[in-house]
Design brief:
Distance between the termini: 44 Å
Number of strands: 0
Number of domains: 1
CATH architecture: Orthogonal Bundle
Largest sheet: none
Helix content: over 70%
Low-confidence stretches: 297-301
CATH superfamily: MetI-like
Length: 301
């Protein structure tokens, strides 16, 4: 009986392992294909299509993307600065906001929670936000437009609150009996015990800020303040514009030569690598906290 049961367990383990291997292959192949196509010669793509093992490699797509290295480096710096500064400030402020909402003796706990839920259901709208940020707060065409309007998220505050509510109440009461103030309790006990949710929210915020291009489109006119995503979007739009002009215009050989020299398909994939590369490096650092922090914070309470 025990022998047959062990065989069943081995079969199940083998099936689960095989399923995981298949899933990994399905996830890795598209990612590997994106990388390889970005290094593939444009003529090879036109003749043979996308290949994991291209016949000819080329760096032409990356040369075109980094045609203006100063602009690209500046966009990287602006994007990294606003992403990490906004992440630090927003996580700190949202944790401070969520802490009193998690305490049982806070009088306005229910009212403020309902208010947060209402803001999740009804937004202010683009036009009122634009008027507020440009005419009243004077944030238009400044670096702080990337920071101040994005410091709080109702969803993240609620995740923080529910996670804080799941911490041992007896431990917090013991600290209060020893004379710890609320602020000391927050800094020395709540935050050290909340590493999973802090890492999870930090990753979500930095990912959101890194991928932001809409703020630059609406508020920024100074090219030195363009984010990476918006700069890449402009490069892609310029390429599409040249293609459209070449298709609609006859008798301009120079324009056709320029079009043929642009590695269009390879450059699309190169843009994806340039945009997503840093986040692919950051994600493994947060991976062990990501699932546990989000599920625990969302399910408790």
């Amino acid at each position: 009986m025990s022998l047959s049961r062990s065989r069943i367990i081995n079969y199940r383990f083998f099936i689960h392992l095989l399923f995981l291997v298949v899933c990994i292959i399905f996830f890795i192949i598209p990612f590997a294909l994106v990388i390889m196509v970005s290094f593939t010669d444009e003529d090879v793509i036109k003749e043979f299509g996308y290949q994991l093992f291209p016949k000819k490699l080329s760096l032409e797509a990356y040369r075109y993307v980094f045609n203006s290295p100063r602009k690209m480096i500046n966009a990287y710096l602006v994007t990294a600065a606003q992403a990490f500064l906004c992440t630090f400030l927003s996580v700190l402020l949202m944790a401070l906001c969520a802490y009193p909402l998690s305490r049982r003796n806070f009088i306005f706990k229910k009212h403020l929670t309902v208010f947060l839920l209402i803001t999740m259901l009804f937004g202010g709208g683009l036009v009122p936000s634009y008027i507020l940020n440009t005419q009243y707060l004077k944030l238009g065409n400044t670096f702080w437009i990337y920071i101040l309007p994005h410091l709080a998220s109702a969803f993240h505050i609620i995740v923080f609150r529910t996670y804080f509510q799941g911490l041992p109440e007896t431990m917090l009461e013991s600290a209060k009996l020893d004379g710890a103030s609320e602020l000391r309790l927050f800094w020395q006990m709540i935050l050290p015990l909340s590493t999973p949710v802090l890492a999870t929210i930090s990753f979500l915020v930095v990912l959101d800020r890194w991928n932001d291009w809409f703020t630059s489109l609406i508020y920024i006119r100074n090219q030195d303040l363009y984010t990476l995503q918006y700069l890449l979007q402009r490069i892609l739009n310029d390429m599409e514009f040249i293609k459209k002009m070449a298709a609609e215009t006859t008798g301009y050989e120079e324009l056709q030569v320029m079009l043929d020299s642009i590695p269009g398909e390879a450059m699309r994939f190169a843009l994806a690598i340039v945009a997503a590369g840093p986040m692919m490096v950051v994600f493994p650092l947060f991976q062990k906290y990501f699932v546990s922090g989000l599920t625990i914070g969302a399910m408790k309470g």
